[in-house]
Amino acid sequence: MDVRLTGDETALWHAAARVLDANWTGRATVPSPGLYPHQWGWDSVFVALGLALHRPDRAERELLSLFDGQWSDGFVPHIVFNDDLPRGAYFPGPELWCSGADPRAPRGVRTSGVTSPPLHALAALRLHGRAADAERGRAFLARLYPALAAQHRYLETVRDLDGSGLIAICHPWESGQDNSPAWDRPLGDLRPPSPAYAPGRPRRGPATGEDHDRYAWLAGLLRDARYAPGFLRDEHPFAVLDPLVNAAYLASAHALAEIAAIVGADPLPHRERAERVHAALLDRLWDAAAGCFRAHDLRGGRPLPVVTVATFGPLLDPDLPGDVLRRLADLLLSARFAGAAGYPVPACDVQAPAFDRGAYWRGPTWVNTNWLVWYGACVQGLPVVADLLRGATLRLVRQSGFREFFDPFDGTGRGGHDHSWSAALVLDLLGERPG
Ligand code: GLC
Questions:
Q1: Whose CA is nearest to atom 9 of ligand 1?
Q2: One-letter-per-residue 3-state SS of the chain
Q3: pLDDT at residue number 198
Q4: Quick one: pLDDT at residue 169?
Q5: Positions marked catalytic
Q6: Ligand 1 contact via 42 beta carbon (within 6 Å)
Q7: pLDDT (tens digit, 9 = 90+) per residue, 141-196?
Q8: 408 CB less than 6 Å from ligand 1?
């Protein structure tokens, strides 16, 4: 694709491309060398968006290799393990999930047993839009469509736990925002036997040991119940409706309808699903008194109090009512989010007691959530907000490199270095002119 860049942008482009080249394994891209050595679900989705402008053949392979890990019921895992790596290269590894023991899991590919935000169809459609060769782009969509449709069937039949139209996450990792303060209450309600977690195991990220006890215990519950739909619906103790995950689902349902039309399938069921999710998002997760979307704890039967960056996920909904949009934009620009941070958008309301500027999903700014809010602002026709987010994101990586996450006040880079989605989404942003 022909992208016009200034001199400074050209340097940034080459630096981002170098990160993606270095993190390519021959079949997929690792999120961060050393720290995350396997293939991660929503990372690959973001990576594919950047590869589409840099190495389009790899963009397609990135998504296809992720779907090599798809289970026969349509479930798409959040990790596809690379079996060439030594045992223990990452905890939790394949031993925690035991996918090999499940008849629905693919043969010869080991995966995790939880999923990640379903942005896959949205990415596939964007790849098609970027394709230099229209026929090749169509052929790629035709190849991927059955897998995407199966993924959405799984979400609709297995994850719509309360019949509202929204899909539930059954583990914090399924949100991609692992230790978000939004999960503090439902995690605090869990009663894992003690000790649920073998001490001395390598840890990653700044989640506390107790968080990790609960994460591992929850994963073990899912595994021991053989990931059975009835167990998820009726017994599993963690079930939350997250606005960002559901907005991703809605945007992908719209994208799937468009893909269906392109490949000669029926778009109608996907459109109907998108309408249902749209209505349920407003009905179940919109807090009109506070002017924000909140996650909802299905087990506790209550909205969750902490407002996080996930509240802006529904900007991806093209049918968002005008008054909801105005209030969300006000919140985004207020001193609780972008208005208080030199380097927006912080992962958590900076005025919330749980906010922590250095702690992973409890405060720092992430390139992937910035990209989602930027994309949402574009969907909503808010060019000034979109340009603010684009500029802030490029400034972060210019200052601190392609880090995993950043201090929202001074832009200091934190977590992993050479993080793939930070590089890939910079390519995607550079590919779009401001305004
Ligand atoms: C962390 C993040 C998750 C991401 C993974 C790999 O677990 O919380 O969103 O997919 O790292 O980058």
A1: 176
A2: CCCCCCHHHHHHHHHHHHHHHHCECCCCECCECCCECCEEHHHHHHHHHHHHHHCHHHHHHHHHHHHCCCCCCCCCCCEECCCCCCCCCCCCCHHHHCHHHCCCCCCCCCECCCCCCCCHHHHHHHHHHHCCCHHHHHHHHHHHHHHHHHHHHHHHHHHCCCCCCCCEECCHHHHCCCCCHHHHHHHHHCCCCCCCCCCCCCCCCCCCHHHHHHHHHHHHHHHHCCCCHHHHHHCCCCCEECHHHHHHHHHHHHHHHHHHHHHCCCCHHHHHHHHHHHHHHHHHHEECCCCEECCEECCCCEECCCCEHHHHHHHHCCCCCHHHHHHHHHHHHCCCCHHHCCCCCECECCCCCCCCCCCHHHCCECHHHHHHHHHHHHHCCCHHHHHHHHHHHHHHHHHHCCCCEECCCCCCEECCCCCHHHHHHHHHHHCCCCC
A3: 47
A4: 98
A5: 178, 404
A6: yes
A7: 999 999 999 999 999 999 999 999 999 999 999 999 999 999 999 999 999 886 54
A8: no
Overall pTM surpassing 0.90 (yes/no): yes
Dihedral (CA of 382, 385, 386, 387) sign: positive
Inter-axis angle of helices 7-22 and 41-54, to 10 degrees?
130
pLDDT at 55: 97
Question: Does 1 have pLDDT greater than 90?
Answer: no
pLDDT > 80? residue 202:
no
CA 267 – ligand 1 centroid, Å: 32
Say yes or no: CB of residue 40 within 6 Å of ligand 1: yes
Torsion angle, CA of 378/381/382/386, rounded to 10 degrees?
20
Domain ranges in the chain are 9-199+211-430
The one-letter amino acid at 337 = F
CATH fold, domain 9-199+211-430, is Glycosyltransferase (1.50.10)
Question: Does any ligand 1 atom lie closer than 6 A to the CB of residue 174?
Answer: no
Residue count of the chain, please give it. Answer: 435
What spacing in Å lies between the alpha carbon of 176 and ligand 1's midpoint? Answer: 6
